[in-house]
Amino acid sequence: MKVVVAHNRYASGQPSGENVIVDAEMAQLAGAGLTVLPFLRSSDEIGTFSTAQKVLLPLSPIRNGAAQRALAALLAAEKPDVLHLHNPYPLISPWVVKTAHAHGVPVVHTVHNYRQVCAPGLYFRDGRICTECRGKAFALPAIRHTCYRGSKAQSAVMAATLAYHRGTWRHVDHFIALTDRIAAHLVDFGIPSERITVKPNGIPDSGAATAPGTGFLYAGRLTPEKGLELLLDAWQRHPVGSLGELRIVGDGPLRPLAESTAAARTDVTYVGPLDNTGTRAQIAASACVIAASTWHDVLPTIILEALSGGRPVLVTDRGGMPFLAGDAGWVVQPDAASLAEGLRAAADGAAALAEVARRRYEEHFSPDILVRRLIGIYESVRDRS
Questions:
Q1: Residue 362, number of CB atoms within 10 A of its CB
Q2: Spatial distance between the Cα atoms of 64 and 49, rounded to a whole number of angstroms
Q3: What is the DSSP letter of 318?
Q4: Cα–Cα distance, 310 to 216 (Å, whole number)
Q5: What is the per-residue pLDDT across 316-351, written as a single tens digit (0 to 9) for each?
Q6: Is 358 helix (H, G, I), strand (E, B) or coil?
Q7: What UniProt keywords apply to this chain's record, in alphabetical order (predicted)?
Q8: Residue of 89, 50, 96, 90 lying closest to 70 (CA atoms)
Q9: What is the C-alpha R_g of the chain?
Q10: Which residues of 238-254 are buried (b: 16+ CB within 10 A; e: fewer)?
């Protein structure tokens, strides 16, 4: 089977988790015997564009003629069985659905965010959940609030793109929703449930930790929507040392808050940014991993990393996090009082859930299992076309 994987990679310095996931999935598909034909663009390319290309760049999310011509040539030469679309913005465009169908190639789309409706794809604005554009034919609030890259002009282009491509999305042959919340978002958008499969991303197996851990780990971007302020508010409600140690890994605008809290409390340590190997070592050293996002976080990789390492998780009831946690942790409301109670419960019960966490990874998030499910989706779409 031949599959074209289309993905617009995020620029250097931006969150790269999606890039890592797509790369890993392509390698897994190739390892399973499929012919994988990458159709990749990177936002880093924008810096090399000519003046004429930069003038036309705002129109790229709507069509991007150069990308469509390149894709058409690839499809004509290789005659793949299916095109698998991940992120189309800004240099690929949802127009690839039309291009693929013009060549008789069905399209599977993994939905990583809420951008069928929301210009930045987050359902989050000014420190709170925002769904003002849900149900609207044209996302005027996105322009008013400059939701896309802080620019009215770029927000207007993205709003126009969303309006133009509402019909395009409805012609995708099959959607992969990373969690049940993404599936509900697609149904709300008007996609029939029979054209949606819930299939999360997987990560390579790090192996369960060989010794019990202690304390808690927060690892992620130090930004408001990731919940560091909420976590530290909840942590302050407990006496120093009563929960063990909280280690904070990551970097971002809230780094000064992490540093000042660590300076003020002996049970908080700011570790700083780490690579994947270092983060996994911190997971192994901890008894429980915390994901306290206040936005509808789709699929935080740190939760999968924790389960792979045999560590239960304490998460807020936002986005896909309850789906990921399952029976391997605690789900609380995103307020300080609820999270403080969750911290106490997790401090007392984390050790008992270590084996449950590892089993949840093996049964639901192992790449071997997920790649077989993905190939089954490809085969089903191919056979129907």
A1: 16
A2: 13
A3: S
A4: 14
A5: 999 999 999 999 999 999 999 999 999 999 999 999
A6: helix
A7: Glycosyltransferase, Transferase
A8: 96
A9: 21
A10: eeeeebbbbbbbbeeeb
Half-sphere exposure of 33 (CA within 13 A, CB side): 3
As a whole number of angstroms, the distance between CA 355 and CA 328 comes to 9
At residue 142, what are phi and psi to the nearest 5 degrees? -60, -35
Q: What is the pLDDT of residues 261-313, one digit of tens each?
A: 999 999 999 999 999 999 999 999 999 999 999 999 999 999 999 999 999 99
**C-alpha span between 182 and 186 (Å, rounded):** 6
Both tokens of 241, joined, read 């040392």
CB 41 within 8 Å of CB 92:
yes
Secondary element (H or E) of residue 219: strand 216-219
> What is the rounded distance in angstroms from the CA atom of residue 6 to the CA atom of residue 68?
11
Q: How far apart (Å, rounded) are the C-alpha atoms in residues 137 and 163?
A: 6
Least confident of 27-41, 144-158, 214-228, 315-329: 144-158
d(CA 298, CA 290): 15
- Length of the chain in terms of residues written: 385
CB 355 within 8 A of CB 327: no
pTM comes to 0.89
In whole angstroms, give the CA distance from residue 298 to residue 14: 17
Residue 56's pLDDT band (cuts 50, 70, 90): low
Q: Which of 1-15, 32-46, 128-142, 221-235 has the lowest mean pLDDT?
A: 1-15
What tens digit of pLDDT does each residue of 350-362 get?
Answer: 999 999 999 999 9
* 48 confidence band (pLDDT: 50, 70, 90): low
Q: What does the block give as tokens for 133? A: 């554009």
The owner of tokens 């971007």 is 221
Q: Which residues pair with 84 in a beta bridge?
A: 5, 108
Q: Quick check: bond before 200 cis, omega within 30?
A: no
Residue 44 structure tokens: 């880093």
